[in-house]
Design brief:
This protein has 105 residues and is an all-alpha fold. It has a domain of 69 residues. Helices cover 62% and strands 0% of the residues. It is built from 3 helices and no strands. It is rod-shaped. 0% of the residues are buried. The mean pLDDT is 81.
């Protein structure tokens, strides 16, 4: 005669502390993955102009505020001048102002 005794399986119930830690780890992992994904997307969008802009910004930071403003003004002037020379649709203004020295602000 063979008698089978029912065996109860233990349920795998996580203690509340372990469940809380598990949720926090999952949240941290998702946040880390999202940050890595965002960084990859930003890196793909950058081109040589972005890199040059960052390089120029680093160089500009070495100057005083007044010098930096003057250099930025000169760079903007060069870009506008280039745009006017390259595009026939732009008409130069009748009076061009030449500034030898800008007053300091």
């Amino acid at each position: 005669m063979n008698i089978k005794i029912p065996v109860q399986r233990r349920r795998s119930v996580k203690p509340p502390e372990l469940e809380k830690v598990d949720k926090e780890m999952s949240k941290a992992f998702n946040t880390l993955n999202q940050a890595i994904l965002n960084q990859d997307q930003q890196n793909k969008k950058q081109d040589d102009c972005d890199l040059y802009g960052r390089l120029l910004a680093n160089k500009l930071r070495k100057y005083s505020d007044n010098e930096r403003q003057e250099i930025m003004y000169e760079i903007d002037g060069s870009l506008l001048k280039r745009r006017r020379n390259c595009s026939p649709q732009y008409v130069s203004s009748p009076s061009q102002i030449i500034i030898s020295k800008r007053p300091s602000s």
